[in-house]
Protein: Response regulator transcription factor
Amino acid sequence: MIRVLLVDDQPLLRSGFRALLDIEDDIEVVAEAADGKEGLALIKKHLPDLALIDIQMPIMDGIEATRHIAADPDLTDVHVVILTNYGFDEYVFNALRAGAAGFLVKDIEPEDLLHAVRVAARGDALLSPSITRKLIDRYITQPPHTAADTRLKELTNREREAVALVAQGLSNDQIADRMVISPLTAKTHINRAMTKLHARDRAQLVVLAYESGLLTPPNH
Structure:
């Protein structure tokens, strides 16, 4: 059972999402909150598999709530997906850097919402190749971060290769094909790299890969 917690200041949206999710046999909405502070308290109480968090809310916004979740060792198994009205923008990028696994636009189709919840709950990033390219082109233009570059030196060659392929938007199966290994071995390389890089999920691996200089953004 996938346990979901909704955090959004719009009651109608929460009700709509809850109605869609609760009718599924493998998904349960465990609680709702109207702002980030309340949401954070409920997340600590219920320890959901997935928190769907609005990016702009009173008292505490989604970026700040995500930072608190990422910093709490008791919440390492809680995956955060950001909800936004506007699609990929600087706020969403900041949320990804804070530790979110991905984002959803609020007018998402019902079947896409259900798919996204299942994908995020199992630890995969909600970043399609097209979104990864936007992230690269628009936001990762700063010089490499020394700290990230130092951590990359702890990776084996195969782990570094796997991270580079994650950053290109490839799935585990595609990475396995490219590296001529099994999907399980590909997943192992990625998980070990995440541990060494202190990355919560694949979304942060993408950010780290480019900020560290492991891959160079095109035309930059």
Q: What stands out?
A: The chain has a mean pLDDT of 84. The longest strand covers residues 27-33. Residues 183-197 form the longest helix (15 residues).
